Amino acid sequence: MKIWSHFRFDKKERSGIFFLLLLILIVQGIYLASGFLFPVKEKEVKEEELNAFRARIDSFRHRERKHDTIYPFNPNYLSDHKAYMLGMNVAEIDRLYAYRQTGGFVRSASEFAEVTGIPDSLLRKIAPYFRFPDFAKKQRSKRPDRSGRAAAQSRAIQDLNRATARDLRSVSGVGEKLSGRIVKYRDLLGGFFLDEQLYEVYGLDSVTVQRIMEQFRVVESPAVEKLDINSASRKDLASLVYLSWEEAGKIIVYRSAVDKIKSIDELRKIEDFPDEKIDRIKLYLTTQ
């Protein structure tokens, strides 16, 4: 059987193939030419529409600026949302609420800072907007004793660093999970230096912390070997609970720039370094 026999066409078949190819070429030519002969016009934006759009953007910006405005307020009645917007963290807000629940009333900016523990930088920012009622200035402060001496008189205070999970469960509101978290966090720190470090335990609200401190306090500070900030590696610094890997890196960069860190307070000079952590890391670092 010859292959070429399949490609033999008579005159009519050849004409049909020719006209089919011609038709395909014509259609292709029309399609390509249409892009040049009839270009797609971009939609023209009228000047009025553009101005209206710009006006809407300006209105949104104005709303944002208005939202950021701080109005005078009584700090004793801060809501969670407003306190957060002002820059306070959860622990600081909880301390204020715990103090108010005991019947205390803040009567000055300095007392507000003492109760909440907010950093000086934040206090300078929001203190000008504090407004206290006249009677608060006249009455003597009724702030409760936060040292725990009254509780100590009624019952023996136990050492928080020696308390077992079972001991802690004797406090109302502290169950198996919370007592376990307290012990675990204490071990992670190497021991509590301050009673207030209880506020850092996940899941502990301020009311429960107050109950714990009625029975347990830091009687004996832990024997923790402090890290020398001038010789510690980035890994060593990041091993501290209060320092992230990024923050440890910033300390190393600053140390290299100044040759030697003479005081832990120098860390406040580091850009974007959290001031509120400095008082805590002082407990675990030394400049030697």
From TrEMBL:
InterPro entries attached to this UniProt entry: Endo/Exo/Phosphatase_dom_1, RuvA_2-like
One GO CC term, this protein: type II protein secretion system complex
Example GO BP: protein secretion by the type II secretion system
SUPFAM superfamilies linked to this entry: RuvA domain 2-like
Domain of life: Bacteria
Native species: Sinomicrobium pectinilyticum
Pfam families, alphabetized: HHH_3
Name the UniProt record assigns to this protein: Helix-hairpin-helix domain-containing protein
Top-level taxonomy: Bacteria, Pseudomonadati, Bacteroidota, Flavobacteriia, Flavobacteriales
